[in-house]
Amino acid sequence: MEYIISDRLQGVKGSIIRELFKLMKDPNIISFGGGNPSAETFPVEDIARITSEAFEKNPIGMLQYGLSEGYDPLRETMKAHLTKNEGFDFTDNELFIVSGGQQAADLTAKVFLNEADVIITEEPSFIGCMNTFRSYNAKLVGVPMRPDGMDIDKLEAALKANPDAKLLYIIPNFQNPTGYTTSAEKRKAIYKLARQYGVMILEDNPYGEIRFAGNPIPAIKTLDTDGRVVYAGSFSKTMAPAFRLGFIVFNRALIPRMTVAKQCTDVHSTVLFQHICHEYMTTRDYKGHIAQTCELYGKKAALMLGEMKKRFHKGVVFNKPEGGLFVMAFLPEGMDSTPFVEEGIRRGVATIPGVAFVVDQSRPNNGFRLNYSTPTDEQIVRGVEILGKLTHEYLG
Ligand SMILES: Cc1ncc(COP(=O)(O)O)c(C=O)c1O
Which of 137, 169, 311, 392 has the fewest Cβ atoms within 10 angstroms? Predict the structure, then answer.
């Protein structure tokens, strides 16, 4: 059978990262390639207990269809959490529970995008959401990332050059893949430009709670006075990614559209896991759990960055992330990191080449992403030593 694949999926290549997942099964490979949370952070016993209690007390409730908007107690808990801790205002906004941050991007695309619409994205950016946008036949336009967020002049130039742009895609905290955080000034500037040029913003914040240094910066959503910001959050890094749970915050005027989009996609997110999330957040030490997660990642990041500083050739530059799971290192301008990454894998250390995270994947890219949440301390030391040696061979 010769299948005729839709135009929408023709141009979407599989994620290089998910391909690399296969390599990680080789026990001899030290993987800095993934983006998984550390297994140490999963509150396994509490989750097991809450699950068995749920089936004792309300088995039918756990197995029956749920509401498309999400499990009400969890929605209310999240709204209170975001109001208290992040300064959100739900007078004009609503929150739905969705099946991961990835689905928040998918629903936003489904609600707003027409064929060939332009999305302006940070570059590099998260491959999963870029592929979601590609699957809607959107045209991606990249704006280079700086350590304090998008290059604002280049953003304005992109908005001028694409007057019909629909959406601006921003990962404000500990961005995937760079680890960069957008400054308060740039968040204001981005919102102002979005208003001026009439584009929506998708603010994707799966890592915001995983801050181990510096001070939190208010979300762009808290600046939103005209309902142009859709905000996405995730339970993947704070609870467990296999729950496939996240949330989306948007102006109330969009409730009917978001409801239909969710219904068309998967009807509702898993009731059992929503119940577990809610119970965990309201009856266990959620704050302590997040603090422990941040402490663990802070230690791992410090170890990796310290080793990189010691072992990497001085021509390789990188910044210090204040949270999240990643750091991106850059070979000198003009060099291509893909052969470097391939040689690293041959020598037993996996990283992800920068080309995976850009709009035009045919152009060479000098960055490579390292993850510090999953490797052990010994693997971090050994893996950076191997990569460090390679940087010296490459840069002489
Ligand atoms: C920036 C960004 N957005 C969204 C997601 C998707 O997360 P989820 O597991 O909640 O679908 C990820 C996951 O790595 C991510 O890095």
Answer: 392
pLDDT for res 186: 98
Residue 12's pLDDT is 75
Task: Compute φ and ψ for 27, nearest 5 degrees.
Answer: -65, -15
Average pLDDT over residues 152-171: 98
Its CATH architecture, for the domain 7-43+287-395, is Alpha-Beta Complex (3.90)
Q: Which residues line ligand 1 (CB under 6 A)?
A: 35, 100-102, 126, 128-129, 171, 176, 204, 206, 234, 236, 241, 246
**Closest ligand 1 atom, residue 171 Cα:** 1
Residue 278: which pLDDT band, with cuts at 50, 70 and 90?
very high
Q: Which residue spans of the chain are classified as CATH 3.90.1150.10? A: 7-43+287-395
Q: What CA–CA distances, in Å, run from 70 to 28, 57, 73, 210? A: 42, 20, 9, 24
DSSP state of 13: P
The pTM for the full model equals 0.96
| pLDDT at residue 14, rounded to an integer | 67
Dist. CA 206 → ligand 1 center (Å): 6
Task: Give 363's Cβ-side CA count (13 Å radius).
Answer: 12
